[in-house]
Amino acid sequence: MLFFVANATCAEAPRSKGRKPDVWMMPPSDPDGHCLRELFLHPEQWEETRSLINVLGYAIQKLDKQYTDDELRQWLPMVGKWGLQLGLEAGAVKPWGPTGAKTFAAQRPMWERFQALGGKVAALAMDEPLCCVRKDLKKPDEYAVEETAQFIALVRQAWPETRIGDVEPYPFFQRDELTAWIDALQAKLKQMNVRGLDFFRLDVDWNHFTIGNSIYQGNWPDVRKLEQACRQRKLPFSLIYWAADYNRLDRLHLADDATWYVSIMRQGNDYAFVDGAPDEYVIESWVGAPLSVAPETSEWTFTRSVRDFCKRFVKAR
User: In which domain, by residue range, is 189 found?
Assistant: First the structure.
């Protein structure tokens, strides 16, 4: 079981006023990276969407494998010129890198390549280290804390200005498990004299809320309580918005690009209904949809979904 670190109870810290939450846009990367390529080749097709987001995100291995040096040398500097930041999703503890040091060593050449080609990595989201340790490596949670802290320390040393956050799944983990994990990791980093997490990101498989899976129990009010718990700890709460029902509907031959649009709007409505308001919105697709990324004025494209979502849900505090 995940161990618990004592922490003082307090009321939810007030949300910052007068500014909009940050928005990450992470387009589909499969099968061949054509979505990100289209964004750079046709920037005129998503100008309004760019004005509504802060971070253009992508998986580190995909960015490294799918594009040539010539392409990235031309594209990466454009991110800053657009007034955006580059965010990456990367491993911290993985089956192919079972220690923080090994994972860092495997990915460092990728980061250095992007930097040499004009891309500054402003933020790094660690891809579910606790989940990997418990589910894949079958090791205790203390191991996850130790190795994740080591990974963070190495990143902080190499790129001290890069924001680092953790992504974990819900309801695979229950709320008390996640708050205990946050407290344990932050305490370990403090002990190491390393700056703690800059954000905590939740990947909610809200499909379980609909089908009533007896193994994974969860609901949006409980997610809202986790948001409050993060705010109590002065840790920005980040939430992924995605079409959790897409794969199941696809098996029923009911999914198309419209499914993506409708589903993220559904999640937006459901979380707003319980007064949920993350500090950071992440619109991310890994389900192979929608097939078209632009233009933002066409029905069901990815940029259209991001544009409409931001205009509806991302409001100044």
Answer: 22-313
Both tokens of residue 274? 């319980």
Does 4 map to a domain? no
Structure tokens at 138: 């079958």
- pLDDT tens column, 295-316: 999 999 999 999 999 999 998 7
Q: How many domains does the chain have?
A: 1
Q: Is residue 192 part of a domain?
A: yes
Spacing of C-alpha 229 from chain mean position: 18
Classify residue 8: in a domain, yes or no.
Answer: no
Residues forming beta bridges with residue 126, ordered by sequence position: 90, 166
Q: Read off the pTM.
A: 0.93
- Report the run of H or E that residue 156 belongs to, with start and end: helix 141-158
Centroid of chain to Cα 228: 18
How far, in Å, CA of 155 to CA of 159, rounded? 6
Cis peptide bond prior to 95, omega within 30° of 0 = no
Alpha-carbon dihedral of residues 3, 6, 9, 10, nearest 10 degrees?
A: -100
Q: What is the DSSP letter of 28?
A: -
